[in-house]
Write a structure and sequence with these properties.
It is built from six helices and 26 strands. By secondary structure, the protein is an alpha+beta fold. The chain has a 13-stranded antiparallel sheet. The chain starts with a strand and ends in a 5-residue tail after the last strand.
Length: 370
């Protein structure tokens, strides 16, 4: 294999594929990136961790077709440190790969292409397209609520499903048992009859990074066990979480009649300020609601107390409720409008947060004892 490629082009492609590769691997070849030079003037870069796989095509001048695998992180670090604007010559023969740019020359050990595992996609019967911006919104407004508890593995991803309520929609939801985030978008053509799927956290993270470089639409193909995202030059394929996502609609409150309307930025900044003195043990921020006035307070046995009044539109009976400050800040960070509605019931019942009843995103947060 022999090819010449611009450093910036190679670096960009490698930055995408190497982030899929785990730092520690019991199977040596999983630490490698597969580099395949074809006669069509491009290099195909590919990496996998057996659950997630990324392919990317990068433009290159190919002198001799061939394929080889080499350490992904080592190659990425080498290319990152090469001079800007340099041309990188790659050649592979007899178990070694030579990288040359300017006066620098590296020789790396390789492993044969035939040993490199590839995720078998099988049939992916459901196929549709989503605008990249829509997909970004679905990820950004839900992924903070993905659970990190390995024991509840079925919560370790974003749940995608379609429904007719009353119009055909596609919903993305995530929960960790303490808070829930859900986004609803118009169902794209081709998604009808799609199976309910849970997209793993790592796939969501890699997809979100790649979406920053996509302008148009993203092709989504899936079955009950695999999902593939076609992002133009890059293709991301992932196994899905084999589990049943809980019926989250049961925890979305419908009868919360104490409504607070408040500026989300003022609310967020107030919570952020008073929670400065909160510790890992006492993350709770107390909200005392009275007519058009909300008092936020935190009491920490180690650090002391903090309180701040935030103006808001509230006319229901006065009461107090506590929330985990970090969970509240995560939700408020996703609110884009100038007003947010907080639908409350009592100090022990789930609270609903949304911009308005037409907004695509809604959030549910469980209160804390304070």
């Amino acid at each position: 294999m022999k090819a010449t490629i611009e450093r910036a082009t190679l670096l960009k492609g490698l930055s995408h594929v190497q982030s899929v590769v785990e730092r520690r691997n019991t199977i040596p070849i999983l630490s490698n990136v597969l580099i395949e030079a074809s006669g069509e003037g491009s290099l195909k870069l590919m990496a996998t961790d057996l659950d997630l796989q990324i392919n990317e095509l990068v433009a290159a001048a190919v002198d001799q077709a061939g394929a080889i695998t080499v350490s992904a992180h080592t190659l990425f670090d080498i290319v990152r440190k090469l001079p800007e604007g340099s041309q990188v010559a790659l050649s592979a023969a007899e178990g070694r790969m030579t990288i040359m740019a300017g006066r620098a020359k590296f020789s790396l050990a390789t492993l044969p292409r035939d040993d490199f595992p590839v995720i078998a996609e099988g049939e992916l019967p459901t196929q549709f397209e989503l605008p990249a911006e829509t997909l970004k919104q679905m990820i950004d407004k839900t992924r903070f609520a993905i659970s990190t508890e390995e024991t509840r593995y079925y919560l370790n991803g974003i749940f995608l499903h379609v429904s007719d309520d009353p119009a055909p929609v596609l919903k993305a939801a995530a929960t960790d048992g303490h808070r829930l985030a859900r986004v609803t978008v118009v169902r794209p053509g081709g998604a009808e009859g799609m199976p309910d799927v849970i997209v793993p956290r790592k796939c969501v993270g890699e997809l979100r990074k790649l979406l920053d470089e996509v302008d148009g639409s993203v092709g989504v193909s899936l079955s009950g066990t695999k999902i593939r995202f076609d992002l133009g030059q890059a293709i991301l394929t992932s196994k899905l979480i084999d589990g049943t996502f809980p019926d989250y609609s049961r925890v979305i409150p419908t009868g919360n009649d104490r409504i607070l309307k408040i500026d989300p930025r003022a609310f967020q900044e107030g919570v952020d300020r008073v929670s400065t003195i909160a510790t890992e043990k006492t993350r709770a921020v107390k909200m005392a609601l009275d007519r058009d006035k909300i008092t936020l307070s935190v009491t920490s046995p180690e650090n002391g107390t903090a309180a701040e009044d935030v103006p808001g539109d509230y006319t229901a009976p006065a009461f107090e409720i506590g929330f985990n400050s970090r969970y509240l800040l995560d939700i408020l960070a996703q609110v884009e409008g100038d007003l947010v509605e907080v639908h409350l019931a009592d100090a022990a019942a789930p609270t609903l947060i949304r911009e308005n009843d037409k907004a695509p995103a809604l959030y549910v947060i469980m209160p804390m004892r304070v």
